[in-house]
Amino acid sequence: MRIEELGEFGLIRRITRSLKADNSVIKGPGDDCAVIKLDRSSYQLLTCDMIVEGVDFKPGDKPYLIGRKALAVSISDIAACAGIPRYCLVSLGIPKYAPVKYIDQICRGIFDLAREFRINVVGGDISRAKQLALDVSMYGVVEKKYLVLRSGAKPGDIIFVSGSLGDSIKGKHLKFTPRIKEARFLVENFKVSAMTDISDGLAQDLRHILEESNAGAVIYADLLPRHKPSTSLESALYAGEDFELLFTMPIKEARKMLASDRDIFHPIGHITEKRRGLRLIDKDLREKTLAPRGYKHF
Amino acid sequence: MRIEELGEFGLIRRITRSLKADNSVIKGPGDDCAVIKLDRSSYQLLTCDMIVEGVDFKPGDKPYLIGRKALAVSISDIAACAGIPRYCLVSLGIPKYAPVKYIDQICRGIFDLAREFRINVVGGDISRAKQLALDVSMYGVVEKKYLVLRSGAKPGDIIFVSGSLGDSIKGKHLKFTPRIKEARFLVENFKVSAMTDISDGLAQDLRHILEESNAGAVIYADLLPRHKPSTSLESALYAGEDFELLFTMPIKEARKMLASDRDIFHPIGHITEKRRGLRLIDKDLREKTLAPRGYKHF
User: Fold this and answer.
1) What 3-state DSSP class applies to A252?
2) What's the ipTM?
3) Contact assignment for B34 to A91 by CB distance below 8 Å
4) Which of A113, A129, A145 is where one domain is finished?
């Protein structure tokens, strides 16, 4: 069997199904971060993301933005768990012919964003490679009371996204600011039942919440905050790498939140019983099941 | 300027010179692990290593051993700081055509070694890549009183290596067992002044200790424990990837240690003042300066 037949998520399930962990591990693979006991009041968050030339960025993209993105995607995973990023390691696979200036720019992109988020870059590794590849592993902390996983959504909860969706490929995926501040605002003021970041497209990432929460959902096409008036529904639903927060809240909390003046958060639907699946209501109020697709590596 | 002109270590120095860290960071880049405050009695150790097809392993090598090596090199970094490995993340860059069975074997190599060392594999990432690449980031702990860095060697200290040197390319680099047990035995029973693991060749890694300790050294060709009688002096000095411990001890401690029955540790020379540089005494008692070379990625 080839990987393409299994798909990225099939492969991950297959790889991780045999893994065991000791009781210091609160959450292993299957969420945005791994969650580990730290002390009486807090957990550690661990996550890593590899970005590769020709897949996650184009060879001609600005090296500063490539470095920035490598760090930003990992910070976004910490945001998805409502944590605070603290330390990171950076592994670089570099083609032999790369000019030192190009590497300097990549590092400046990483270090500038690290400084902005007060993250300590504490180490790394360099290897020769045919294709430029960057792997960032990020270490964060979160108060136990603020941790949010993908698994807490309940029927009746309202589904929200931050910012806007779609057309990320036109540049946003290289320049987005991870939603740490917004995630912290949410957990410090409201009860958030489930959260993730949109890295594979709204439909796919919502599906991850539904799988982990054992639930279904209905979302409304007209409620999706599109990046531009010209952004297609297709792109808003399926384009990966928006790196926005996707989260759910009990309706009471949702009302309180909407009464605050944060117009960055948009309600897009609600959680249902699992048997209803993931359904979209279009502008003519027709309901249909959303196809399980989005960005896949294989 | 191209990377080749600067060299791997020149590039690392260039990249990391501008880095700043807050006071929770005891040691940033420049040692085997980053060292971070954890609690009153212990530190956290962070390290990552990327291995790439065609560089760190051959396309025809057994996938089980490739996976095993990816984890082993990171465990070896924890051993070099006398710590205990606890959690890891694994990023895989996988060619599209790779059979699922091949990936299964890689993962089995990782998971089996993780189990042996009681390491929790808590997450990872998968990306498509032209070349197989594995990046493991490892999180360990070490009691404050047991932490050993590269920087503590003093003139008069005796230099030791564990096991044997050279000919790693003939297979050992894919099958070695990281020296966690041995490193722990050392720090729990003796005072170790500096330590690293041999990943770039004895001469190069000893040079790293000398740079961080601001010292020189004399080593004796006849004292080097060669892998086989046929192993050349060249290979014992310069071949990378022995993944043995290289460490120094005050002479009193060294005598105590040698009196214990651990014949795995071999004295190979002693630390001197910095101005003497790194010198080798050959079998005819001629002294010469050791050339600064060893494995380099660029």
Assistant:
1) helix
2) 0.94
3) no
4) A145
